């Protein structure tokens, strides 16, 4: 039996990959293709995330909770009890999105504030970005690996895709780290 969180990750990755491949077959613009694939993946992540809030306790236990993550426990440090429920929920959503897809800070912020995403206010989304436990360089490396798997490209093109506001939105440092650490 496949564990539900594994199934969700595999399904999300498969859908994003399928959308990417199908879009590549129909158009040569990697930026719009990647945006379409990312949008589909984000929509699936949003669906999964919204399913958590409407699911049973057993569903949440199978999928995993914030406290189950090795990257962070959801503990926001001292004063966490003074943080609003919406801020805490934004942080939990950020952690959930990072479990299912590779995000830069910029794209995660966009997902959290998007009218098609979680619809958090800007201050709650920024709180989540500032407090989520993520290795942004590792996120960039994982994104680079995914790009290379579905659309091999030169280092220069990959760098542009990783840093583009229409692509992944990673910082130049994060993108360079990813390129430098791809398997040669």
TrEMBL record:
Pfam family, one: Lipoprotein_Ltp
Membrane-spanning intervals of the chain: none
Superkingdom of origin organism: Bacteria
Gene3D superfamilies in the cross-refs: Winged helix-like DNA-binding domain superfamily/Winged helix DNA-binding domain
Domain Putative host cell surface-exposed lipoprotein Ltp-like HTH region: start-end pairs: 86-132, 135-182
Region described as Disordered: 48-83
UniProt protein name: Putative host cell surface-exposed lipoprotein Ltp-like HTH region domain-containing protein
């Amino acid at each position: 039996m496949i564990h539900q969180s594994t199934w969700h990750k595999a399904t999300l990755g498969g859908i994003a990959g399928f959308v990417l491949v199908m879009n590549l077959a129909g158009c040569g613009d990697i930026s719009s293709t990647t945006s379409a694939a990312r949008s589909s993946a984000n929509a699936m992540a949003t669906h999964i995330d919204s399913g958590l809030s409407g699911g049973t306790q057993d569903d949440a236990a199978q999928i995993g909770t914030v406290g189950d993550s090795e990257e962070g426990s959801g503990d926001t440090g001292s004063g966490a009890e003074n943080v609003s429920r919406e801020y805490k929920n934004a942080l939990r959503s950020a952690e959930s999105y990072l479990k299912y897809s590779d995000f830069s800070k910029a794209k995660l912020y966009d997902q959290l504030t998007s009218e098609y995403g979680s619809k958090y206010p800007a201050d709650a989304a920024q709180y989540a970005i500032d407090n989520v436990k993520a290795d942004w360089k590792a996120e960039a490396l994982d994104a680079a690996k995914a790009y290379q798997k579905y659309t091999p490209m030169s280092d220069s093109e990959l760098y542009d895709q990783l840093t583009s506001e229409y692509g992944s939105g990673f910082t130049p440092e994060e993108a360079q780290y990813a390129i430098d650490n791809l398997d040669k």
